[in-house]
## 1
Amino acid sequence: MKGSLLAAGAMALWHGEEFYEKEKVVGEEYYQQWPNILRDNSRVWYDWSYIVAWCGVGLSLVSAILFSSAAICLRGEREREEALNMQYLMPGNLAFHTTFKITQPA
């Protein structure tokens, strides 16, 4: 779960940085100060790796949820089994008897 949240946070930071650089930051090397001809003729696309990255984040979240639900189911099953086996435990009785020989010193 932590891994998928960390990856989603990294992607969000990347999106935020991209937005901030393109829309907010002013400087001669940033998009806001580019000449109009350069802005009109430049294209940005991320191709398939962008989609694959978000699919990886989503699938890691799904796997974390499935592992958590499996752990919850196994815990409930173990508790039910322990409750059924509780009737076989008889407090105060030992499973075996031992005898002690008491001798007095001479």
## 2
Amino acid sequence: MAAPGDDEVLVQFNIMGGDASIGARASDGSAREESNIFDVPSTDAWKDIWKSLKSNTTVLAVLDFTAQWCGPCRFIEPAVKELAGKFASVKFYKIDVDKMEDVATKWKVRAMPTFILVKGGQEVSRVVGAKKNELDRKITQALQATKN
């Protein structure tokens, strides 16, 4: 139980609606959505999220494979938050490779950070390394391809 004034993390999955959200529960019990960046807490949660992403062909998602010990991952985190603000329709999922090694292996992640852009269950692009401009460009391209 949280101490008065502390916030608790609230993770909700709405599989039927094709959405997952993460937010914070304030000490007064009210919930608020933080952003379009979602921490994936477990492999079981990932399975539910992935099922939803596969069935939704209109949502572009960025899978952010990261690790707590990864310096470049920490370096690019503010840029990822900036991109999430710029691309409000894109969902960003942070996946800790140490907690979900099986997910990282399935996606053939060999270095961190690795960003995999997916739509409708298919990989559409990949960025390996802390390359903000390349990630920005590839998200823009993927969104433009959707409009055409």
## 3
Amino acid sequence: MRRSSTKKTGQPASTASLTSSASDPFRSASSKASSKELERIDQLFYTYSDGSSGLIDPEGIEALCSDMEVDHTDVRILMLAWKMRAERQGYFTLDEWRRGLKSLRADTVSKLKKALPELEKEVRRPSNFVDFHAYSFRYCLTEEKQKSIDIESICELLDLVLGSLYRAQVDYFVEYLKTQTDYKVVNMDQWMGFLRFCNEISFPDFGNYNPELAWPLILDNFVEWMREKQG
């Protein structure tokens, strides 16, 4: 009876062992492939990083853009920084680089270039775009404790981030910002207000704009300026 019992209890262990050994090669192969991919991602990083700082700096980013045949001022480079969650403008750390390229499944320049159109589609989704819009402002805060951005830089950022989606609004925003004298800088609340304005307000008639609602004062002034222009 003991032998029979041992046989029965041993059988599942034997089956489990067979199952385990059968699945291990797949697990092992997947792990090896992932490891190789990470190696190639790291090698690509060191191709563009500065040896002394251990970072990809502005010069390295320009070299990467050149190899991808993409202008370094292309909004997709900002989208790439967003995907990496890069903290410092013009610099990528190894961890940031790994995070972005692993997510994009890109371990060569060619694959990274091919991933850009899909990345753009991902960013353009409404659920992601609000986050990207906020990120683009934070990314431009280059000084410690800085909370606002000068008008000239904001005009460039508006054109880069919102220009392709809201061309008419952005052109008038920029014209207003460059001619007004009340504001020398723009803060995050005002920056996010621009996007909400473009999303919600009919343009150029402003039929549904209500200054009594919680809009930043700069947008009240902008609407007033536009209505004066329209006569």
## 4
Amino acid sequence: MQELISLLARDLDPSMKIITTRLDNDDMLLPDFVERIQASARDTDKGVIDARGLRVDTRTRKIYRDTAYQKVPSPFLSVVEEKAGKRCRLMTAYYDQHSLMHRHLPLIKLEFPGWVQLIHESNKVMARSPAEVDTRGQPLDYDYETFMKSLHRTPTQAYPAE
């Protein structure tokens, strides 16, 4: 992955910042995630940017504010690098396990919810019982159906207010 992205970045303007973000195929980013990460990247030359997130347990139809990734990066981290151009060798968001990336680059934690991790019958988090998942997040008093429909609305309406 790093080699491919580095190869693609060689044709870009050397003054450009490169941002890579981790995302599993069964999870999602909230509508304004990209804009918020890009805005945060303006203030740093290199670092790991990590937003807060939500967990949606499709088994119990409950929504939680994530509390598991307060000190280490979440699986949805973004890496900012200023290395475009002919000689670039990018680190990318896949350089190491997400929970260890703060050992390689400064960690910038953002308070806005930017991602949704879906907990369902066939993913890793499913190995935990619903009771264990509950302890990994703060339950939100937000209607499941309303939340799922809201993901198709404007960014400011897409997630529960803090």
